[in-house]
Write a structure and sequence with these properties.
alpha/beta, 7 strands, 45% helix, Rossmann fold, seven-stranded parallel sheet, binds nicotinamide-adenine-dinucleotide
Length: 274
């Protein structure tokens, strides 16, 4: 029996420059002001996407917007705290008529705290920021584009698959939730034309991890040893760069990955393989 593709374009041979292009698409990226989110915004703009950029740090977003003018794409910036559902709802009210084709849920915080010292307030903030924000963003995206489909890229961590650094149980739990959510949505909404995947970064050199590195200078023994152990265990023996994750996000966003759905994509220099 001949199986016919749902859409003709699936059977067409597209040249590589068209497959990698995001021209004519709009992408919403959270946590775009710094680190991996910033690098992803730059690559997406280079690939031709118009951008809706979200962060609590509006100054960083302003600087990034300036930098992106050279790509000649439309860029809107929003000061939104994604840990507050009301703010997410307001954002999607604004985006109603211009829902993004691609959603990147990149925001994540990773403060350390001994498990026995975690209180309700601390845990709630971690879950609201890392997991619940991703849940609500995905719900808006799917509700908004149920007739058209779209691409969702979530962010987990190697910590969700292999807890390595001490005092991160709260973070590991939130990121394991992101993986479960991603796979559930991929399974349930693939038939509506959604591709939902999750990137699992290893140690990436960003403003977030640089803050932790400062602790090493303060000679915090635990932090220093887990950093060294990470480098020893990782076959590439180095931290990754934000752009090395951004390039994978670009592949997942564009038609290069048109048959990739529900995938857990590890970008860790081989850390989990060792
Ligand atoms: N850097 C790593 O080594 C690493 C490893 C594994 C997973 N990750 C994940 O990758 C993602 C990006 O990490 P990063 O290191 O680039 O982070 P980062 O701390 O360098 O940057 C995060 C950005 O998110 C913004 N932000 C934080 N809380 C916010 C909120 N409530 N609302 C809106 N914006 C908010 C910050 O202002 C900042 O611009 C996170 O989900 C993180 O958990 C990072």
């Amino acid at each position: 029996m001949k199986i016919i593709g749902r859409r003709n374009e699936e059977n067409e041979f597209k040249p590589i420059h068209k497959l990698i292009s995001l021209k004519g698409r709009r992408a919403l990226i959270t946590g775009a002001g710094k680190g991996i989110g910033r690098a992803t915004s730059i690559r997406f703009a280079e690939a031709g996407a118009d951008l809706e950029l979200v962060d609590i740090d509006i100054e960083s977003l302003g600087k990034l917007k300036e930098e992106l003018t050279k790509f000649n794409v439309k860029v809107n910036i929003y000061k939104i705290d994604v840990s507050i559902k009301k703010e997410i709802d307001t954002l999607w009210e604004i985006l109603k008529t211009k829902a993004p084709d691609v959603l990147v849920n990149n925001v994540g915080i990773y403060p350390t705290k001994p498990f026995l010292d975690v209180d309700e307030h601390f845990l709630k903030n971690i879950l609201d920021t890392n997991l619940n924000s991703t849940f609500w963003m995905c719900q808006h995206m799917i509700r908004n584009r149920i007739k058209r489909g779209g691409v969702i890229i979530n962010f987990a961590s190697i910590e969700a698959l292999l807890p390595f650094k001490k005092e991160l149980a709260h973070y590991d739990m939130s990121k394991a939730g992101v993986i479960a959510l991603t796979r559930a949505l991929a399974h349930e909404y693939g038939k509506y034309g959604f591709r939902v995947n999750v990137i699992v970064p290893g140690g990436i050199w960003t403003p977030g991890t640089k803050k932790i590195a400062k602790d090493i200078l303060k000679l915090k023994y635990d932090v220093a040893t887990s950093g060294i152990e990470y480098l020893m265990r990782t076959p590439l023996h180095r931290m990754g760069k934000p752009d090395e994750v951004a390039r994978m996000a670009l592949v997942l966003a564009c038609d290069m990955s048109s048959y990739v759905n529900g995938a857990v994509i590890v970008v860790d220099g081989g850390f989990l393989s060792a």
